[in-house]
Specification:
By secondary structure, this protein is of the alpha+beta class. Strands 12-5-7-6-13 form a 5-stranded antiparallel sheet, with helices on one face. A 3-stranded antiparallel sheet has the order 2-1-14. Helix 6 packs across helix 7. The protein is globular, with a radius of gyration of 28 Å. The chain is built from 12 helices and 14 strands. 24% of the residues are buried. The structure holds zinc ion (2 copies).
Length: 518
């Protein structure tokens, strides 16, 4: 016999209802009328909530489609600053002036520095983008190009974001765009199943570091590409794993560039990681650096000597030193031209969003022992590889991580990149440039909602009329998940019937209007 509770779940999934709805108490401010409202959990992983994850994926697909072949410059005008925002920035200006005055007289600036830090946070909280001062790298690294990378012609970047239009001899115009896939270099030959032919010679360290720094390399690529083409090129990119578990990136690019030029930009693109050396492990698990309460630093367990701080370790990197890692793309390049609205465009959007509902490490099923062993070795390589300046693993190499605090243990860093399901890449899975569509993901979501309420003829509700509170397990009106699911299934079926009816009416109205016109 089927399990009743499972049938409810299956029904919910079948009707696209959230499997873990969240219960809220909605109070109408004017009347004090209280209602229980169930809203979808909104999770993006299908292992947690398949219907919500699928909805999120479709939303990304809509976002990708809308921006890819735009033929008009998207208009993105920020709202004017509010009185509160202007006041905060004024206060920030005064704090800076006071601080710089003290500094010029050699006096203590600690108090004002702290105030400045607070103000910067308040500025962000008040809904302003960026910060008042550009982030200034503390150290100067030589910006000389690497000798092993080809130089790249540079053009000034104009504000244009729209690709070129082409006209055929018979007067048809079209605006092609691009679908590009970039991969990591080879770490050793792999078999059909993605596992290395010779695991001992496969370069796991390199594979781990390339994955950790993949997002930075991608940023560098876009920067180079924009300088190369000379306009503000826009993209929608999705990061995915290959069978060999190395990340690769599918990119929808607005406008078109020749394959030869793309190859040139890829060959000239690299990202150098100027981190301290991890060549020798100075401390292992049975003699780890110890935290000193009084100084707030880590000490050598035997000598009591204070370990160099992150900043000191960076300062010690000299001009003759090599970067810890240089990340580059592999030579393999897939690029195809795609026309707006074509079947190719839909297929590519399918690729771009295919794996978004899964963790990187769960995209390819492990079916052979070799694959399982390969995943294990990659995880091992990532265990002691520092994931960021704050990574606990720096202690292993005798360096205090940035913002050191007690309880750090090499090999047990909490950074996502070390977790098996992330395969070393902990960044965002979808990278979208700011002027892709003129909408944010929230705008695309609102579009869907508007369509639905218009279709159903529901009155537009003003969110300002209500207050919302979460309902906690101890509250008298709290519904257990099973009960919430029953409500969600019933609601969903009700609205799907209403929607079906509305659709039929719209078709009939269209037909009779056409009849009248005839
Ligand atoms: Zn959900
Ligand atoms: Zn880490």
């Amino acid at each position: 016999m089927p399990l009743a509770r499972q049938v409810v779940k299956d029904l919910a999934a079948e009707h696209g209802a959230c499997l873990r709805p969240v219960q809220l108490r909605r109070t109408e401010i004017d009347t004090g009328y209280i209602e229980q409202v169930l809203i979808p959990c909104g999770h993006t992983l299908s292992s947690v909530c398949p219907p919500c994850a699928e909805r999120a994926r479709l939303l990304r697909a809509a976002q990708c489609r809308e921006g890819w072949h735009l033929d008009q410059e998207p208009v993105i005008e920020p709202d004017p600053a509010t009185e509160e925002q202007r006041e905060l920035v004024t206060e920030r200006a005064e704090a800076q002036e006071g601080r710089d005055l003290l500094a010029s007289e050699g006096l203590d600036t600690a108090e004002l520095d702290e105030r400045i830090e607070e103000l910067d946070e308040e500025i962000t909280d008040a809904g302003m983008r960026g910060s008042v001062l550009p982030a200034r790298p503390r150290r100067h690294r030589s910006t000389r190009r690497r000798q092993d990378a080809a130089p790249l012609p540079r053009r000034p970047v104009t504000a244009r974001t729209i690709g070129k239009t082409y006209t055929t001899p018979d007067g048809k115009t079209f605006r092609p765009s691009l679908f590009v896939t970039l991969t990591c270099p080879s770490y050793g030959r792999v078999d059909e199943d993605g596992a290395p032919a010779d695991p001992d010679s496969y370069n796991y360290t390199r594979a781990a570091r390339d994955a950790l720094h993949f997002a930075a390399l991608f940023d560098r690529f876009i920067q180079n590409l924009r300088r190369f083409v000379g306009y503000d090129l826009q993209y929608f990119a999705a990061i995915e794993p290959q069978k060999r578990l190395a990340p690769h990136v599918h990119i929808a690019i607005r406008g078109t560039i020749s394959r030869v030029e793309l190859r040139e930009v890829i060959a000239a693109t690299y990202h150098q990681v100027w981190w301290p050396s991890t060549g020798t492990a100075r401390y292992d698990d049975d003699c780890l650096p110890v935290w000193d309460e009084h100084t707030g630093t880590y000490l050598d367990p035997d000598t009591g000597e204070v370990l160099p701080t992150w900043d000191q370790a960076l300062d010690a990197i000299g001009n003759e030193d090599q970067p810890l890692h240089v990340a580059r793309f592999g030579a393999r390049l897939d690029a195809q031209g795609v026309l707006a609205g074509s079947r190719d465009a839909s297929r590519c959007i399918g690729y771009l969003t295919k794996y978004l509902t899964k963790h990187l490490g769960h995209c390819h099923q492990e079916s052979t022992d070799a694959q399982a062993a390969h995943a294990g070795r990659l995880a091992d390589a990532l265990r002691y590889e520092p994931c960021s300046p704050t990574c606990a693993n720096w202690l292993r190499y005798g360096i205090q991580p940035k913002n050191a605090r007690p309880g750090l243990r090499p090999g047990a860093c909490k950074g996502k990149a070390h977790r098996r399901e992330y395969l070393g890449y902990a960044g965002r899975r979808v990278l979208v440039s700011r002027k892709w569509s003129s909408k944010t993901l929230a705008d695309h979501r609102a579009d869907r909602k508007n369509w639905l309420t218009t279709m159903l003829g529901l009155p537009a509700t003003d969110p300002g009329r209500y207050t919302w509170e979460p309902v906690k397990p101890g509250d008298p009106e709290h519904m257990p998940n099973g009960q919430r699911l029953l409500h969600v299934v019933a609601d969903r079926i009700q609205w799907q019937t209403a929607l079906e009816l509305a659709r039929r009416r719209a078709v009939e109205a269209g037909l009779s209007a056409a009849g009248r016109a005839a």
